[in-house]
Specification:
The chain is α/β, with parallel strands linked by helices. It folds into three domains: 324 residues, Rossmann fold, CATH 3.40.50; 45 residues, no CATH class; 73 residues, Arc Repressor Mutant, subunit A, CATH 1.10.10. Helix content is 48%, strand content 15%. The strands form six sheets. The protein has a five-stranded parallel sheet. β1 and β2 form a beta hairpin. α11 runs antiparallel to α12.
Length: 505
């Protein structure tokens, strides 16, 4: 999507108001539960991070998608989607995001240690480039190019250079006296790249450097079966390229940044993520705090605290991983480890048609923006359905798995549209506009782009009727209550110009 997409706040608000009254659920999801491993995982995690059921569930599927990235593909004609999920969780401060990460971190570490030690994984790395298949958890503190991508050290003394009189290796090839060494950045390799303060990444800001950061994240989210996921950085001082092979899954949490509703629509990187945005109401936050305080002085669990769950979940993931590996050994093609049934494909099409119908009647630019989320949502639904099938050890993706996946994708898609609607309603401008004064003032400010200028009153009336859909008579009723905020001047004939009084701005 174009970065400079012009999103008009009024049109967006009005469109989202209409969405509240529409129903795109043309296909009823029969009573469907998520796979048992996902339910078990969610139950335990939400006992630790209260009332965060959906992010807890997504942490399971994000982890599962990562450990299956070398095993499973979702065929889309000539292309195939890898099962990685990149989850961005935007939520109010002090509402359990860090608490969840603190619990998940040892689960990920333990799981990756098991996978790296298993014979079915890649052989131990001989060098940085061979280590891409080795799983690890990275949680960098910095967002600089060097921290994320790494760098090179050139002409480093080779510790193996002195090896016999002829300086030859075991193959008879000369051993170089000096070598180039790759210094790995946080993005390199496999596993999870986690940011618990993603707002500091800069992708929510406007600048050339931050745009480069956005492109960096977009690149590694591309399909693994092409070179488009490789991130290349030119080392200008040396005239060489640093190539970063990032096969990681993203776990990112952040506070809601300013202007998020526009950022979501205009930054293409967010369409590639599994995006979830939620503002915790004060009543629920109070309940979270009260339940947290109830645990003061209480000992819950065994002698090792949460360690028993870390062990349980890592073994659970390992068992699923082994099933997928055995399926791959049997069928010989990642695209056939799990396969769609005809009924599942039909169910997916009906859901897609229903979602498109849901968005009809919107202004074109809003429809196009939401449509990018729609297609990403459909891709996510296909990936999630495949993961649900694998979690249940099913070689077939059925309508049940589509319905399970839809539980996940609906929550994400709904959170985006709900955020737009609620945020615009609550924004300072919207609050201001709920008053008689604010409505007129907002229209005047829209009409007066330069600020401090005279605006024809007729222009103000025209813009008011266009923006609000109200009659001219309504404007005149409101004007009598707010005209004390404006200066007026008679220009010629019946023309009157207005300007906001400076002491009232």
């Amino acid at each position: 999507m174009a970065e400079d997409l012009n999103v008009d706040e009024w049109e967006l608000y009005d469109a989202l108001e209409k969405m509240d009254t529409q129903d795109f659920d043309t296909v009823r999801i029969e009573k469907t539960e998520l796979p048992a491993p996902a339910l078990r995982w969610t139950k335990v995690v939400t006992e630790i991070s209260l009332y965060n059921d959906y992010p807890a569930t997504m942490s399971f599927f994000m982890t599962l998608g990562q450990i299956l990235k070398d095993t499973v593909r979702v065929p889309m004609g000539r292309l195939a989607l890898d099962p990685r999920i990149h989850f961005c969780w935007v939520q109010t401060a002090r509402s359990g995001k860090t608490t969840m990460f603190d619990f998940l971190q040892p689960v990920w570490d333990r799981t990756f240690t098991i996978l790296n030690e298993h014979p079915l994984t890649q052989t131990p790395p001989k060098g940085p480039l061979d280590g891409v298949k080795r799983f690890s958890l990275n949680n960098p503190d910095a967002f600089t190019d060097q921290a994320l991508l790494g760098t090179k050290k050139f002409d480093v003394k080779n510790p193996d250079w002195i090896r016999g009189e002829e300086n030859l290796d075991i193959n008879g090839d000369p051993i170089p006296e000096f070598i180039d060494i790759d210094i790995e950045g946080a993005l390199f390799g496999s596993g999870i790249i986690a940011f618990d303060e993603f707002e500091h990444s800069g992708i929510f800001k406007e600048s050339q450097h931050k745009q480069d950061t956005v492109m960096m994240f977009q690149k590694f989210m591309n399909r693994l079966d092409s070179d488009t996921h490789l991130i290349k950085k030119r080392l200008t001082e040396w005239g060489k390229d640093l190539v970063v092979d990032c096969q990681r899954s993203l776990w990112a949490t952040t506070l809601p940044p300013e202007g998020l509703e526009k950022v979501i629509l205009t930054k293409g990187v967010f369409q590639r993520m599994w995006f979830y945005v939620r503002e915790i109401p004060e009543s629920l936050k109070e309940q979270m705090e009260e339940e947290y305080l109830d645990n003061v002085g209480e000992i819950i669990g065994g002698d090792n605290g949460a360690e028993e769950f870390h062990i349980e979940f890592s073994e659970m993931l390992y068992d699923i991983y082994l099933w997928a590996q055995r399926r791959l050994d049997k069928v010989g093609d990642k695209r056939k480890v799990v396969e769609f049934t005809p009924d599942a494909k039909n169910r997916l099409k009906v859901i897609w048609r229903g979602m498109r119908k849901y968005m009809q009647g919107f202004p074109d630019h809003i429809f196009n923006a939401l449509n990018t989320f729609l297609m990403n949502t459909i891709n996510n639904m296909c990936i999630a359905a495949a993961l649900c099938a694998v979690a249940e050890r099913s070689p077939k993706i059925t309508t049940k798995h589509i319905d399970q996946a839809r539980i996940l994708t609906d929550a994400s898609f709904d959170s985006i549209t709900t955020w737009f609607s609620d945020t615009l309603k609550k924004s300072p401008r919207r609050i201001k506009e709920q008053t008689k004064e604010g409505i007129i003032v907002a229209i005047y400010e829209d009409s007066n782009k330069k600020g401090g200028e005279w605006v024809p009153k007729t222009q103000l009336i025209t813009n008011y009727t266009k923006k609000t859909g109200k009659a001219r008579a309504t404007f005149y009723r409101l004007w009598s209550d707010v005209e004390h905020l404006f200066e007026t001047r008679k220009v010629s004939g019946n023309r009157v110009d207005v300007r906001r009084k400076s002491n009232d701005k």
